[in-house]
Write a structure and sequence with these properties.
globular, 29% helix, alpha/beta, Rossmann fold, 7-stranded mixed beta sheet, Metallo-beta-lactamase, Chain A, 455 residues, 12 helices, single chain, binds zinc ion
C-alpha cells in the first residue's frame, strides 16, 4: 500500500501557477506546471525549491499557459523529466510555448524585465521532443520502474483538455484539470468517470467557486443576447470587437458567429481573427474527431486576417466596418491585438466592445468595461492616454468552466475519500468546502504545504 503525499508548488489557494506534486514510494510526479497569469519574471513560476529531486514526469492537463507555461523551465532544471499530455495538447503547447518566448522577449525590452525570457525557443523544442502525445482512456506506465499508472479523460474545457487518473497500489488519484460539464459550440461537456475507478483522492479546480448565478445564464440564452447586441452594432455600420483567449474561446466564438450568420440572426459582415487564435484553429481542424460529433468546424479561410495592428493605417481600415473582430488577448493586456484595436475603437460611438470571459480587476479590459464615458485610459505601455467615447461596452458569460454547483455534483459522483480544492481564490475554495458533504476529508492546501493523504 503506497503512502501518497500532495504538495501544491503553485495554484494552492489561488488561481496561480498551477502545479501539484504527488509523491509515493520515493517517486515524484507533477500534475501541470504553469505560469502565474498576474505575476512577472521568476515570481510567476511555481515554487520549484519544494522539489527535492527530479520528478519522473510532468503530466499536462491542457495547453493554457497557467497549466503548461513553466514546463520548459522545469525541464531545463531537470532534463531527465518526461512530459505526458494528449496528442492535441502537445501540438497546442508547441504553439503556445513558442508564443510565450516571443511575448517574454518583447516584455524584456518594453518593461526592462531582465529575467525574461525565462526560457528560449530551443528549450521549447527540447520539451516537445520529450513529450509523449497519448490517446484518451488508455492507461500507461510513466517509466519502467514507476509505481504510477496514468490515463487521460476528456474534461470538456478546450481541445485536448483532460482530467488525469493516476494510480499507485492502494491509492487512486483523480485530478480534474479545468472542467466544463455542459456542451460548448465545439467541445462536448466532460465525460463522467466510470464509478469502477474508485477514486481515493480527488484534486478539483475551483475557478468559479465565487460565481453565484450559474444556472440563470444558459449558453443558448447568452448566445441570443450576443446575436441581438451584435446585430444592433453592425446595422449601424459599426465594428464589434470581441477580445478573446487564443485557445478555446476564439475557436468556439468564430463558429458561434458563423452559425448566427448562416441562420440569419446576425448580418453577413466580414469576421476577422488574430494570429495565435488562427494558428490554434489549424490544430482544431486536424483533430475534428475530438470535437462534438454534431458540431461544424468552419474552414479557417472564412475568417479574415487582421494584419499588423501596430500600423495605424491597418487599424483605421479595420474600423471602416461593418465587421466583427475576434482578437487576443481576452483580458486586453496592453500592446496586444485587442488593446491596439480598442485604442482606435473607443474614439467612436457607433462600435461595440464585447468581453466574453473572466476579467481580472487589475487588467485594462476590466478597467475599460467599468470606465465612465469621458474617462481616459492607456492602451499602449508607453503611449498617450485615450479618451473613451464608446458607451457600448458589455460583458457576456461564455465560460468554459463548470459552475460551482456542477463541481459539487461532480464530487458526489466521484465520491472520493479525500477532496483537495485547488485553482481558485480563497473565497472560491472556501465556498466549495462549505457546500460539500461533511463525510469527505477536505483540504485547501496553501502553496508549499505537504499533505499526507490516507487511503
Ligand atoms: Zn484552462
Ligand atoms: Zn485553468
Amino acid at each position: 500500500m503506497s503512502k501518497v503525499t500532495f504538495t501544491a508548488i503553485g495554484g494552492g489557494a489561488e488561481i496561480g501557477a498551477n502545479s501539484y506534486l504527488l509523491s509515493a514510494d520515493g517517486h515524484d510526479v507533477l500534475l501541470d506546471c504553469g505560469i502565474h497569469p498576474k505575476k512577472e519574471g521568476r515570481e510567476a513560476l511555481p515554487e520549484f525549491h519544494h522539489l527535492k529531486r527530479a520528478p519522473e514526469a510532468v503530466i499536462v492537463s491542457h495547453a493554457h499557459i497557467d497549466h503548461c507555461g513553466a514546463v520548459p523551465y522545469l525541464m531545463r532544471e531537470f532534463p531527465s523529466t518526461e512530459c505526458y499530455a494528449t496528442q492535441p495538447t502537445v501540438k497546442i503547447m508547441d504553439r503556445m510555448l513558442h508564443n510565450s518566448v516571443s511575448v517574454m522577449g518583447t516584455l524584456a525590452v518594453e518593461r526592462g524585465i531582465k529575467e525574461y525570457p525565462l526560457y528560449t525557443h530551443s528549450d521549447v523544442e527540447y520539451v516537445i521532443r520529450r513529450s509523449y502525445g497519448l490517446a484518451f482512456e488508455r492507461e500507461f506506465a510513466l517509466t519502467w520502474d514507476s509505481p504510477f499508472r496514468a490515463s487521460f479523460h476528456p474534461s470538456g474545457h478546450v481541445l485536448g483538455s483532460a482530467s488525469v487518473l493516476l494510480r499507485v497500489p492502494g491509492h487512486t488519484v483523480f485530478y480534474t484539470g479545468d472542467v466544463c460539464m455542459t456542451h460548448q459550440e465545439l467541445m462536448a461537456g466532460l465525460t463522467l468517470l466510470d464509478k469502477s475507478a474508485e477514486v481515493t483522492t480527488l484534486i478539483i479546480e475551483s475557478t468559479r467557486g465565487t460565481h453565484e448565478q450559474g444556472h440563470a445564464i444558459t449558453f443558448e440564452g447568452e448566445t441570443l443576447r450576443f446575436a441581438r447586441e451584435m446585430t444592433r452594432v453592425l446595422e449601424q455600420g459599426g465594428v464589434v470587437l470581441v477580445p478573446s483567449f487564443a485557445l478555446g474561446r476564439t475557436q468556439e466564438l468564430l463558429n458561434v458567429i458563423s452559425r448566427l450568420q448562416e441562420s440569419g440572426q446576425v448580418p453577413d459582415a466580414p469576421v476577422y481573427a488574430s494570429g495565435l487564435g488562427r494558428a490554434i484553429y489549424e490544430i482544431y481542424d486536424k483533430y475534428t474527431d475530438h470535437l462534438r460529433p454534431d458540431s461544424t468546424l468552419r474552414p479557417l479561410y472564412e475568417f479574415k486576417r487582421i494584419g499588423d495592428v501596430w500600423d495605424p493605417e491597418v487599424r483605421h481600415d479595420l474600423l471602416k466596418g461593418p465587421a466583427v473582430i475576434v482578437a487576443t488577448s481576452g483580458m486586453m493586456v496592453e500592446n496586444t491585438p485587442s488593446s491596439m484595436i480598442a485604442m482606435e475603437l473607443v474614439k467612436f460611438r457607433k462600435h461595440g466592445l464585447f468581453f466574453v470571459g473572466y476579467l481580472d480587476p487589475d487588467t485594462l479590459g476590466y478597467q475599460l468595461l467599468h470606465a465612465k464615458t469621458g474617462d481616459e485610459l492607456r492602451f499602449e505601455l508607453n503611449g498617450p492616454p485615450v479618451k473613451i467615447k464608446l458607451d457600448n461596452r458589455q460583458s457576456f458569460n461564455f465560460s468554459a468552466h463548470a459552475t460551482r454547483e456542477d463541481l459539487c455534483k461532480l464530487i458526489d459522483h466521484i465520491a472520493p475519500r479525500n477532496v483537495v480544492f485547488v485553482h481558485g481564490d480563497p473565497e472560491a475554495t472556501a465556498w466549495m468546502r462549505d457546500n460539500t458533504d461533511s463525510a469527505y476529508r477536505k483540504f485547501i492546501p496553501t502553496t508549499g504545504e505537504a499533505i499526507e493523504l490516507d487511503s
